[in-house]
Amino acid sequence: MNYFPEEVLEHVFDFLTSHRDRNAVSVVCKSWYTVERFSRERVFVGNCYAISPERLIERFPRVRSLTLKGMPHFADFNLVPNDWGGFVYPWIEAMVKSGVNLEELRLKRMVVSDEGLELLSRSFANFNSLVLVSCEGFTTDGLAAIASNCRYNNVLYAFMDMYGVDLDDVNHLGKLGTRNHVSKLVSIFVLQIQTPFDDAYDWQRFLRELDLQENEVEDHRGQWLSCFPDSCTSLVSLNFACLKGEVNLAALERLVARCRKLRSLRLNHAVPLDSLQKILAQAPQLVDLGTGAFVSDPNSESYHKLQAAILKCTSIRSLSGFLEVAPRCLDAMYPICLNLTSLNLSYAPGIHGSDLIKLIRNCRKLQRLWVLDCIGDKGLEVVASTCKELQELRVFPSDPHGVGHAAVTEEGLVAISAGCPKLHSLLYFCQQVTNAALINVAKNCPNFIRFRLATLNPTIPDPVTFQPLDEGFGAIVQSCKRLRRLSLSGHLTDQVFLYIGMYAEQLEMLSIAFAGETDKGMLYVLNGCKKLKKLEIRDSPFGNMGLLTDVGKYETMRSLWMSSCEVTLGGCKALAKKMPRLNVEIIDENGLIEVNPDDDDRQKVEKMYLYRTLVGPRRDAPEFVWTL
Q: Which residues form the F-box domain (predicted)?
């Protein structure tokens, strides 16, 4: 099957950027498997318990960029108890022991410790990028270690990049099998001896990216930013918007001033407008800006300096922040609004009403908008008439607990769908919705890839006809042929799941809450959605029949979550017995389940998490997690 030299195949495989395509070529034949194994540098693991770190490293010994996900998605809604798991330390430890040349680590919903960050910072010579999303367990001490210790030899790597030599070639010189690689290594060392270096050239480079998104970080001290060495000039992206503590403003300003390649900077609430204007004056090259506290007197000197600095920031395309804001100060931002393609105001409750609408009117090139529902239907109508390039919209509730009334309705949603024909990704929280509105949306926007709609009263029917919302969501799945992610809300019967099974051929992730009538609804989905990878269900009437009728389907899925359903302990045990290659976890943090085999079929399971794994039951499960 292999008619090409391995070097040629490596170069061809380099053009395959998706993990699925890489997986596909690896199963063509043994030689392709081998080439793909040793050439894959970027690896994605959707469940950190699906495989052990040792096995992954054996499979991809040259991994340089690793993405790991830990806790289930419903952890975002506080449905996964504390101490459930998702620890990254064993992964870092295994990579250290194996000598992996890790450069990038991206984690989501994982438990990260200061010890892990310390080990990470000291163990990988070429490490330069850390992205943490919705993680917990660490403090600013861990961030200080990352800032202090992540550095690598810039001269050596400059030559390696120039001549296409991997660090693995250096580390495993004795194992190299081609003259070509050896000659490249010789060239490097000869050049290092013969080439006179510019005194201004950095002998060491430091972290390029530190991105902290929505993490729970304990602030031990506000001085972690001062831990970046004075010689650190390599930062391209820095995001600490989620940190709640104070910031060493002088250290921040010095860091920004010397990192001339900085493109993305997102600040926390402790960075005042006065510091922002100094930062922007030092970094007019920014492309992505997240402001901190945007409060000042419009007549003050610092505000006028800010206006002058913003006029020079002609490259900014993404804007976020405004964690604290004085609406009178927003005028300063209008010059950069004209070129914005991304605007995130989901943490800016202080911007609303006419101020918000005025801001939106200046953003005619927006492709991505995140906003609170205080924008109202009138504001969404302005978005629809102004932002013709909009591709992604997320409307979050101002009151996440749902005590008040949502400020947007189906009218705003219909207006957006009519005015923004390129829209393909939606997250929308509203009080209620009608079938007619959903049918209109389906007609106007048939290109949806992600459609997530949540009503604050999750069981309410169509408020006009008092019928279930089956036909509305049925229209969505029937019209949107490329739909990959769907979240349902409102009064729904088994009929909507029949529609989903019939028409949602590309669906990969489905979230269900307070929906359905019988087990047939669940079976419609499992039997019909051939590409389904993740199914999460809460507060729905599905039970053992829905769980056990088509157990073979779970072999092709990544995971199934069921909470507050009708599944029993006996049903879960039967599933575990039939499918030994799956981990079936019972989460009983309240200690409600009694060990009595005679009652297994009567004891309802509050939370069940099922996932495919290659390594069997995990070793770090807490006492309240039973692996059957």
A: 4-45
Say if 616 falls within a structural domain: yes
Q: Is residue 253 in some structural domain? A: no
* All residues at 6 or more sequence positions from 186 whose CB lies less than 8 Å from its CB, including other chains: none
Segment 28-70, tens digit of pLDDT:
677 677 777 777 889 999 999 999 999 999 999 999 999 999 9
pLDDT in tens, 263-318: 999 999 999 999 999 999 999 999 999 999 988 888 888 899 999 999 999 999 99
* Inside any domain, residue 425: no
Instruction: Record the pTM.
Output: 0.88
Closest CA to 452 of 476, 434, 422: 476
Contacts of 458 (CB under 8 A, 6+ apart): 489, 490, 513, 514, 539
- Domain hosting residue 620, numbered range: 554-566+574-591+601-628
Element (H, E) at 151: strand 151-153
Residue with tokens 């390039």: 389
Which residues are paired to 528 by β-bridges? none
Tokens 């509203």 identify what position? 430
SS (H, E, C) 64-103: CEEEEECCCHHHHHCCCCCCCCCECHHHHHHHHHHCCCCC
Domain-embedded: residue 395: no
- The domain tally of the chain equals 1
Whether the Cβ atoms of residue 82 and residue 107 lie closer than 8 Å to each other: no
CA atoms within 13 A on the CB side of 294: 27
Query: In angstroms, rounded to a whole number, what is the distance separating the alpha carbons of residues 249 and 255?
Result: 10
Give the closest residue to 306 by CA, choosing from 314, 319, 320, 294: 294
